[in-house]
Design a protein that fits this description.
Layout lengths: L2 H48 L3 H14 L5 H13 L4 H14 L4 H13 L3 H14 L4 H13 L3 H14 L5 H12 L3 H14 L4 H12 L4 H14 L4 H13 L3 H14 L4 H13 L3 H14 L4 H13 L3 H14 L4 H13 L3 H14 L4 H13 L3 H14 L4 H13 L3 H14 L4 H13 L3 H13 L4 H13 L5
Helix pairs in contact: 1-2, 1-3, 2-3, 3-4, 3-5, 4-5, 5-6, 6-7, 7-8, 8-9, 9-10, 10-11, 11-12, 12-13, 13-14, 14-15, 15-16, 16-17, 17-18, 17-19, 18-19, 19-20, 20-21, 21-22, 22-23, 23-24, 23-25, 24-25, 25-26, 25-27
Length: about 500
């Protein structure tokens, strides 16, 4: 190889290397410049968002992506503009977030934002995976655990919800929303003690949130602490005097203490704020009835069915009100309206049968009770009521079978057992009656009705020692033994008086 050939090879190598190096350099410089341009537009977009210039922000983030499609951060903010701010383009937001996660699979914020989108659309199950991923990539982020806990709560996974919310509270112990939501979850789980503790924490952190006092009042009311409940409801009202719910719940707290005048005052305040709220009207009607103001109670019941004329339960309530007033014709009229609106409710036929019984329409009553059995064959009450109808009709053996059926359905309920044992007693089966009454006493050791009937049985059987023992027990539980004895004599002389 001569000298000229060697020089030629060297020149070719140099030129090839130079061209390759130049191409790489020219590729790298624009890439760097692109990222810098992208960063500039990204920052401009963030500034526009802070100034609530949504369209400007959208444009800047799109430019950032145009300059550098591999830059993941603008996609997150683009999604935020699309969905969380403008609330317009859900799919565009999802697409942007999926692209961001393709570029950076460990981006916790991207998973969290996807979870928020699905959660806000009501797709709670779908949101769980994304919230869970966010907590795995950012385990110290309280907000991510909080949102995962909320999603678990929405999907009925209460234990998991409580666990995540507790984790969130450990990470952010000064955030009052977390114990506030924990209280709701504990309520859902029926754990009033933990719910009380949670709301107390929430109130300590933020004492001026009316809802926390309202929920704490609810917890106290359901743990037989009405006085404390009243105090909390009063605080809630002070903080939020226009919220009718608090007045209604305060009224219920007073009603639980049999302070009906105070209860009525609060119910009426609730009604003043929400004049057509039928829940408040129902409470007003009930309390007027308890106070003996029957015209006002009737007025409230009638207003309810005027507001919601298709509500079968309210016609039945009106009918039952008339029944208690001894207005059986009016009762039947209203209960039949309830049945016409909803013919598949067993309780309506029981109420209808009760009114028919009082009108001495025994056949119609038994027909109504039979319909109740057809609709709800495992309910003991209609069997018991048919037994009473048959007994009045003189069909004692048949009545006994119905009393027995009712007692078998609810062998843990004293009223059906006592009725059955009483029928047995008057059918001259005192031993069977005694056996059932002793079972009642096992269930309710101070059941006056059971002891009264036992006393009659022992008197009739001339079991003096047993009678004296029961008589002493009746005195202990405050029963007028002389009245029981007189009743026993009346029954002995005329058993048809049962």
């Amino acid at each position: 190889m001569n000298f000229k050939t060697i020089i030629a090879f060297i020149l070719i190598f140099f030129l090839t290397f130079h061209i390759s190096y130049s191409q790489e350099s020219s590729a790298n410089v624009p890439k760097l410049e692109n990222r810098q341009e992208a960063e500039g537009h990204f920052q401009a977009g963030k500034k526009a968002m802070q100034e609530n210039k949504v369209e400007d922000a959208l444009g800047e983030f799109k430019k950032a992506i145009e300059f550098d499609p591999t830059y993941s951060e603008p996609y997150l903010y683009l999604a935020e503009v699309h969905f969380f701010i403008s609330q317009r383009e859900t799919m565009a937001a999802v697409d942007a977030l999926e692209t961001a996660l393709d570029l950076d699979p460990n981006n916790a914020l991207g998973y969290h934002q996807l979870g928020l989108i699905y959660y806000s659309q009501g797709y709670f199950e779908d949101s769980l995976d994304f919230f869970y991923a966010a907590t795995r990539f950012a385990p110290d982020n309280a907000q991510f655990h909080f949102d995962l806990g909320m999603a678990y709560g929405k999907t009925g996974k209460i234990d998991l919800s409580i666990m995540e919310l507790n984790t969130a509270f450990e990470l952010a112990p000064k955030e009052h929303r977390i114990p506030g939501e924990l209280g709701l979850m504990y309520l859902s789980a029926g754990n009033f003690t933990r719910a009380i503790q949670s709301y107390q924490k929430a109130i300590t952190l933020s004492p001026n949130v009316a809802e926390y006092h309202g929920y704490l009042g609810f917890c106290y009311l359901n743990t037989n602490k009405p006085e404390q409940a009243i105090l909390e409801y009063q605080k809630a009202i002070t903080l939020s005097p226009k919220k009718s719910t608090f007045y209604n719940e305060l009224g219920y707290a007073y009603e639980k203490q049999n302070k009906y005048k105070y209860a009525l005052e609060q119910y009426l305040k609730a009604l003043e704020l929400s004049p057509d709220d039928v829940t408040y009207l129902r409470n007003v009607a009930i309390v007027y009835e308890k106070l003996g103001d029957f015209p006002k109670a009737e007025e409230a019941y009638l207003k309810i069915v005027k507001i919601i004329p298709k509500s079968s339960i309210d016609y039945d309530n009106l009918g039952y009100f008339y029944y208690k007033q001894g207005k059986y014709t009016e009762a039947v009229e209203q209960i039949e309206k309830a049945i016409n609106l909803n013919p598949d409710v067993a309780e309506f036929y029981i109420d209808l049968g009760g009114a028919m019984t009082q009108m001495s329409k025994i056949d119609e009553a038994m027909k109504a009770f039979s319909k109740a059995i057809e609709l709800k064959p495992d309910s003991p009450l209609p069997y018991n009521l048919i037994g009473k109808c048959l007994w009045k009709s003189g069909k004692k053996e048949e009545a006994l079978r119905y009393f027995q059926k009712a007692a078998e359905f609810r062998s843990d309920t004293s009223v059906y057992l006592i009725d059955y044992s009483e029928a047995l007693f008057y059918m001259e089966k005192p031993k069977d009656a005694e056996r059932i009454l002793l079972k009642v006493i096992e269930i309710e050791k101070d059941n006056a009705g059971a002891y009264c009937l036992l006393y009659r049985i022992y008197i009739f059987q001339k079991r003096t020692d047993d009678a004296e023992r029961v008589k002493s027990k009746l005195k202990d539980i405050g029963v007028d033994v002389e009245k029981v004895l007189k009743s026993s004599e009346d029954m002995k002389n005329n058993p048809e008086n049962k």
